[in-house]
Amino acid sequence: MSTAAAPSTTESSPAPILEARAVAKTYHLKVGRFKREDVPVLHGVDLGVEPGQWVAILGASGSGKSTLLHLLAGLDRPDSKTEGGVFFESQAVTRFGSRSLDRYRARSVGLVFQFYHLLPELSVVENVLLGAMVRRGRFAYRRAQPEARARATELLESFGLAHRLRHRPSQLSGGERQRVAIARALINDPKVLLADEPTGNLDHDTGQAIIDALAAERERTGRTLVMVTHDPQLASRADRVVHLAEGRIVETSRTEADPS
Amino acid sequence: MYQALLTRRYLSSKIMPLLAAIAVMLCTAVVLLVWSIMGGFLVMLLDAGKAIVGDVAVSWPTAGFAHYEDLIDRLEEDENVAGATPVVETFGMLGLPDGRLQGVTVQGIDVQSYARVTEYERFLYWKPTDGPTPDDDGVGGDWRADEIGPWPELLADGLALGERDRVTGEFEPALVPGIEVAGFSRRDPESGFYRFGPVGMRTPEGDVRWESGFLPFLELTLNLVPVDRTGRPIEVVTRSYPVANEFRTEVFQIDSSTVFMPLAEAQRLLRLDAAELVRQEATDPFDEAFGQVEVLDESPARVTTVFVRGTGSMTPAELADRCHEIYMEFERERRGQVPPAGATRNEPGSGSIQITTWEQRQGMLIGAVQKEIALVLLILLVISFTASFLILAIFWAMVSEKTRDIGILRSIGATRAGVAWLWLRYGLAIGLIGSILGAALATLIVWNINPIHDWLGRTFAITVWDPKVYYFSRIPNDVEPVKAAIVVAGGLGFCLLGALIPAIRAAFLKPVEALRFE
What we know:
The complex is a heterodimer. Chain A is of the alpha/beta class. Helices cover 34% and strands 27% of the residues of chain A. Chain B has two domains: 2-46 and 366-516, no CATH class; 54-127 and 172-179 and 218-358, no CATH class. In chain B, strands 1, 3, 4, 7, 12, 13, 14, 18 and 19 form a nine-stranded mixed beta sheet that branches. A two-stranded antiparallel sheet of chain B has the order 2-17. A two-stranded antiparallel sheet of chain B has the order 5-6. In chain B, helix 2 (16-51) runs antiparallel to helix 16, helix 3 packs across helix 9 (316-333) and helix 13 (416-447) runs antiparallel to helix 16 (481-507).
């Protein structure tokens, strides 16, 4: 992994585990057959996430919050013209090569999506184990298979899905699917969990249950959690809420839940 | 690891891979089917073509060459030669009992040595057999299984190339024509056996008289043109001969145009037998010495060809080279008495003895079949490419359908190579299933091709395999494991080729775009 100068920290706050520095993103959208149109989405966003912190990124649709999360997850790259970038434990994710980026996604971060994104052909437990298979590779996974299977079962049990291990995603409710997706994101025990509108596709009560599950998991493990949402009520459960509007951070507020 | 799991699940949960596997199966089956039958046809052709000419021929056409017994002794002394036989080859016109005249290739052979070099005895058709007993009406059975028939005598006559005169008891030379020469005996398409019936013979008065068409009970008239040493024709000789037997190699071209006769008789008719060169003492009929001749020299008997059979230790080409070496030595000791050996074997236009392999002698026939096979395989290759594009189209659609899955895999850390391998592996699995099933299907069809062909003939009156076109009455029904392996490997290769572009496309999809794909 290539490294860059560590971002500045203050004495009062620990060094961020994940940081966006002056991150900008412009989409070059194809309009018609030959024409392209530049659509700027993020304009020099600065965001630092401390270890163990729960950060909610709040904003309206089109404000750029999902794009920011994708950049933090290494799923996309920020504009190369800007000097900033995404840093994970002081390493410049933006400068990672393809293989390093794959490793980063497999080991350091776990991703939860609004639409669950489970593979319909696989059972619940296989969907969860998929993350372990990808991370370890063929031979290492074979050696660690019992351990990985036990971990998957334990995670699913902790989310109340012990009786659903062999079921297909299509046989589950939306809330159950999202819990399977969270279990998959946690199978490799990542340092940071990134959740993109995890309740966006669920009714209020189920959404609350999902947030409760995330909160409980964080309580248990002290894992860093970055969650994108457009629901201020859900955002208020986080330690810190970052308000994003038109690709800029307009406000950062500490909530009552913030232990600091 | 995840590739294996997903390949299994994709294969079992979608209709598209099933369609792709069926496409591969059909392509593989067609290629193996055609290759096996055409390849088997070529093998049969080669076996049959070799069977009446041995491995190598040493020939000096038309005029023939002398001292062939010496050459044969020298050849047979070589450890690589199993046997050699003298043959006189010429063209003639055969007068058939029904008045027709037919151009034929005449081979004057010494049966004993010829049978050692070729499979002459096996090809004699009218002989005792353990085949099926004929039906009461004689339809569908093998005449030769009739124990009261003249089959043992006909076999003996065929092996002697002659008949005992029933009245005088003297041995007289006879002919053995190919079974398709006269066309009197016809092959029953169902049983495959030849049967004869009445044939209309023209009488000198112009009427038609119906007689038995069994050729060994009839006579043939042979017209030959002997030539002198310069190749100029002398005079047409015409002789009538009984028919000792008929032969069948299964190669229609040979069976319809070849006639065997005794070597000595052929030499005599073509003036290739031993003779004395004489000078008349006086030309004046009133001279005392008139009628007396002075023997100047003896001209030994000649043959046009010596067929050589190898022991199997050498390829025909190597054996031909060895024969050339032996001939060179032979020619050195008989310089001026035999045709020159030439510096290299079978050099066209060199004026030297021709030493050719059986493949070269049957070159036109074999070459045509080899070209036909190559052409068919080329066409099938194009069809396979079409199948490859079909796989590509199916895989392209499958990758499009699974774009979101690719995005998910990439989002949890799957590498580009890993994603590409998933699709290649998927293509490989479809190729493996399709190819193996295709090979099994083709093997099943090839093994049963003759019953299937007969059934097609009976039910729909379709005759695909006409012996007059394909020389053989039986469709080759062997599948070579090597060919099957090549076809299966080819099927796999084409599937990989078809899956390659979609796999690369999948690998280079951007995770975010793949996740947003709708």
